[in-house]
Design a protein that fits this description.
Helices cover 40% and strands 9% of the residues. It has 17 helices and 10 strands. The chain is elongated, with a radius of gyration of 30 Å.
């Protein structure tokens, strides 16, 4: 209830003045006909209709050479001119009549438009230094959001914008302290702005291009061009959209010629690769130094390190090298999937883990006030209660994918699925392997533990002896 109150309160701030007793659409009428006057605007361009609308409304005339210059910058003076023409069209039915009353004093060309908007209270003196330089998208939003009375606009996206912004999931590049923040949010609320990506980014400090300005201004004039945002507002706990690469920490360190004994460097290289969503590592050694034996040792250690990230699904590494050139290329793959299927199974496994993660939070089995130890135990319980050991040892049972999809696994699958869930909670974890077994190592609230979900899953129920084991206990039990 508290969250809902916050959302509605923010919506009220964003929509202040936009809910008169009888709100109406602008309904501007064209004053001329566009007949392909701009040589650089084609009907296949995404901005064609909005540039056409701008011309027909008398808001833009283009360059002197017959171009509209859609990707060129718009100066602050041009932004104010466009907005002043829109206000004049609204008040007089002509785009120039209003500003014309402020001309004739021999000043700069944009001064009548500036004076007209200032007299209407749409702008003050805040943009004086911007009239002769490219305007930012935030400055454009400020001018357009105040060019016309708020009462002309229906808040078609009021609640979704308020909720998405408050949740920190949308328009994240518009901070609370940013100049013209409320003007930017108004444009989203009215359906005039929709953002440049899946999170509705506005890019406020970027220069506004002429085609972008055309889209915003045309949507102010024509209600049918406005955007109804269908943003999905996720709960704060949701990790939807997280990828395998997002779960790997790397400080960007990469070592191009690690020795087989330099495990820390090899681990850094593996993390560097995984954090970038890649599957190959290219190393460079002095010419003539790589031998078959040395390459085999490298391949063995890289594979062992990769096993520490079992949730990433890679259990096979192939090395190719050139002794004369000194390069070695390691390619990571899975013996369980074809080359064409690796990405599919990784994505499907992640999707399943995300669904379990969100369901655990939604059901209250995981809560924000729980310790890492308590969260890890809750996921341990879920794994043990929702999976059974596959005594046939089918190939796919070595994967987290089969555990999530079919509730069957062997130790590789148990550990892969469990580690994936822990990492979605931000819990640092890895693996411990013997010749015939693998289990989880994790740091919970600063303490190192060994956790074996495979042995935790017993026919009689969940066996918690294998949760949060000491290293000595795990070594004595499994090594």
């Amino acid at each position: 209830m508290k969250c809902r109150v916050h959302i509605l309160a923010l919506a009220a701030v964003l929509l202040l003045g936009t809910l008169p007793a009888q709100a109406r659409e602008t309904g501007f009428a064209p004053i001329r006909v566009y007949e392909e006057q701009f040589s650089d605007v084609s009907q296949g361009d995404w901005y064609y209709e909005t540039v056409k609308a701008l011309y027909e409304l008398g808001l833009a005339n283009g360059r002197e050479d017959g171009r509209y210059d859609p990707h060129g910058d718009l100066t602050g003076g041009e932004v104010v001119t466009m907005a002043a023409r829109l206000r004049s069209l609204y008040e007089t039915g002509d785009s120039e009549t209003g500003p014309a009353a402020y001309g004739g004093d021999g000043g700069v060309w944009y001064q009548p438009y500036v004076s007209y908007l200032q007299e209407k209270g749409a702008i003050g003196r805040e943009l004086e230094e911007a009239y002769n330089r490219p305007a930012t998208r935030a400055e454009m939003a400020h001018v357009l959001a105040n060019a016309l009375p708020d009462s002309l606009f229906t808040p078609v996206n009021g609640e979704v914008v308020a909720a998405g912004y408050e949740a920190g999931q949308y328009i994240t590049d518009v901070t609370e302290s940013m100049p013209y923040r409320e003007d930017i949010l108004k444009l989203y609320t009215w359906g005039v702005a929709g953002g440049s990506d899946q999170t509705g980014s506005f890019q406020p400090e970027e220069n506004i291009s002429r085609c972008q300005a055309a889209a915003l201004a045309a949507r102010l004039a024509y209600g049918e061009l406005r955007l109804a945002l269908d943003w999905e507002i996720l709960p704060a706990y949701s990790r939807k959209g997280t990828t395998m690469a997002d779960l790997v920490d790397s400080d960007g360190s990469f070592y191009e010629s690690p020795a087989p004994a330099e495990w820390d460097k090899i681990d850094a290289d593996v993390r560097y690769m995984l954090s970038r969503g890649e599957r190959t590592i290219r190393l460079q050694y002095p010419a003539g130094t790589l031998t078959r034996s040395y390459a085999d040792d490298l391949n063995r250690v890289f594979l062992e390190v990769a096993r520490n990230y079992v949730e990433q699904t890679y259990n096979y590494v192939h090395i190719s090298y050139s002794s004369s050139a000194g390069f070695a290329t390691l390619t990571f793959a899975s013996s369980l999937y074809s080359e064409d299927d690796v990405d599919y199974y990784r994505e499907e496994t992640m999707a399943c883990a995300l669904a379990v993660h969100d369901q655990m939070w939604e059901s209250g089995k995981i809560t924000a006030d729980m310790t890492e130890y308590e969260k890890a135990k809750a996921y341990y319980t879920w794994i043990c209660e929702n999976c059974r050991y596959d005594h046939t040892s089918a190939a796919m049972s070595h994967t987290g994918y089969r555990l999530f999809k079919e509730k069957l696994a062997v130790c590789d699958g148990y550990t892969a699925a469990y580690n994936l869930l822990l990492k979605l909670e931000g819990i640092h974890c890895g693996t411990y392997s013997t010749a015939d077994h693998i289990w989880t190592t994790a740091t919970l609230d600063g303490q190192a533990y060994h956790i074996d979900t495979t042995w935790g899953d017993q026919d009689y129920g969940v066996e918690y002896r294998y949760f949060a084991m000491t290293e000595a206990y795990a070594a004595a039990r499994f090594a």
